[in-house]
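Q: Given only this backbone (216 positions), what sequence would you predict?
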């Protein structure tokens, strides 16, 4: 190949690469804005149920993140936002039978939510499965509207997943836990941006996740 042809081909490749980078920049910029928009508002209103999405538990105690989500859920329940609370999240073989949903139920009971007002889902291992289980519970109990509680940065993806399975949801972010440094906040946004992108392009990793957790 002559030098002129190589130079021309190189120019085409550089332009294509530039276009791909521009499209990626625009896409991730749009996703960032959507995450930020949903994270910055509380839509809590009267509904059929409140759902708290799972986070880590340590030996039967909620992690600080799960603790904050549950506290916000208790606050919403006491305001009579909904008569039913659903806790979501399973556990791994390393958790000695403990689950995020079960720990959440116990925390709610200890904070005055009656047993017959709680539904604990204890088998899901990621956000996608939590939404699938929530849809099953909603169909079984004829729930038409649900207030969903999680971290602010998590709620845009939750909303989209819920819409995909036909759920009507209102997002309500838990309170911040002290000061969040810029690096930690950037990690959260980056994780959600990548997760939402993989969701849009149908790149699901649930089966791999389940094998890693010993749930295959």
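A: Predicted residues:
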């Amino acid at each position: 190949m002559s030098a002129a042809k190589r130079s021309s081909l190189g120019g085409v490749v550089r332009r294509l690469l530039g276009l791909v980078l521009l499209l990626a920049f625009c896409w991730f910029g749009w996703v960032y804005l959507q995450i930020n928009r949903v994270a910055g508002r509380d839509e809590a209103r009267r509904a059929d149920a409140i759902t708290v999405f799972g986070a880590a538990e340590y030996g039967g105690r909620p992690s600080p993140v799960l603790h904050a989500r549950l506290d916000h859920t208790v606050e919403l329940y006491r305001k009579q936002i909904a008569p039913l609370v659903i806790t979501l999240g399973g556990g791994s073989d390393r958790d000695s039978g403990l689950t995020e949903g079960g720990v959440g139920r116990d925390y709610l009971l200890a904070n005055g939510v009656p047993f017959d007002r709680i539904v604990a889902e204890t088998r899901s291992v990621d956000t996608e499965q939590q939404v699938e289980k929530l849809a099953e519970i909603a169909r079984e109990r004829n729930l038409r509207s649900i207030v969903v509680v999680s971290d602010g940065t998590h709620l845009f993806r939750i909303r989209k997943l819920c819409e995909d399975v036909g759920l009507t949801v209102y997002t309500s972010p838990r309170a911040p836990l002290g000061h969040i440094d810029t690096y930690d906040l950037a990690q959260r946004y980056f994780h959600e941006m990548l997760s939402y992108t993989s969701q849009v392009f149908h790149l699901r990793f649930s089966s791999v996740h389940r094998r890693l957790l010993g749930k295959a």
